[in-house]
Amino acid sequence: MPVKVKNAMRSIARHVDKIIEELDNTEIEEMMKQIKGADKIFLIGAGRSGLVGKTFAMRLAQLGLTVYVIGESVTPAMSDKDLLIAISGSGETSSVVNAAKTAKGVGSKILAVTSYPKSSLCKVADSIVVVKGRTKIDIEKDHIKNLIEGTHTSLTPLGTLFEDSVMIFFDGVTAGLMTRLRKGEADLKNRHATLE
Fold first, then answer.
1. pLDDT (0 to 100) of residue 196
2. Which residue among 98, 111, 125, 136 is least enclosed by CB atoms within 10 Å?
3. Strand runs (DSSP E) across 39-185, as ranges?
4. Active site residues
């Protein structure tokens, strides 16, 4: 059993390393510009993507930015000076796409983080960051290919590679924003939760 655990970890690490090389620098630059220029930043994702969004929201708050997670009771109204970061591997998650449409209706900027640049979410978005990852919709497509190649997607079930890659990507964005905003680790620590 420990061998399977380590094999899964190696598979994830190899995938993330490949994804890093495939990320578009222009998309990353635009994302940091949008975050820095927004009055308020809102994040939305469903399931594991939502959890990844919450961790990024925490880091943005620790950087001193005004940030909210859609669905929380303290989330205020959006305006045309705000940014919605919408996370969906498939780009078809109905709650995420609908939130993006609503935010667009009030004039907010929409940034999509997805594996599918031709998805419904991206049709609404002002800008996108493509983070390739095996998502739930890839499972059926990949089955025959995996049998032929002898790869084992069960090591990373139900879209795990997308969320893992986005989590690490958001940590990289946090590091980039720290430099841009001239913030150090002490600044983040000062805003870290004291009641947990």
1. 62
2. 98
3. 41-45, 67-69, 83-87, 109-114, 127-130
4. 163
| 111, 103 Cβ separation under 8 angstroms | no
- Residue 146's pLDDT is 52
Q: Is the pLDDT of residue 135 over 60?
A: no
Joined tokens for residue 57: 């929201």
Residue type, 97: V
List the domain range (segments joined by +) for residue 106.
Answer: 2-187
The tokens of 44 are what?
Answer: 């939305």
pLDDT digits (tens, 9 = 90+) for 116-132: 999 999 999 999 999 98
Considering only CA atoms, which of 52, 60, 62, 61 is closest in space to residue 86?
Answer: 52
Strands 127-130 and 109-114: parallel
User: Would you report the helix, strand and coil content of the chain in percent, each value rounded to 5?
Assistant: 55, 10, 30
Query: How many residues are recorded in the chain?
Result: 196
Kindly tell me if the per-residue pLDDT of 100 is higher than 70: yes
Give the Cα separation of 38 and 27 in Å (integer): 16
Instruction: Tell me how many domains the chain contains.
Output: 1
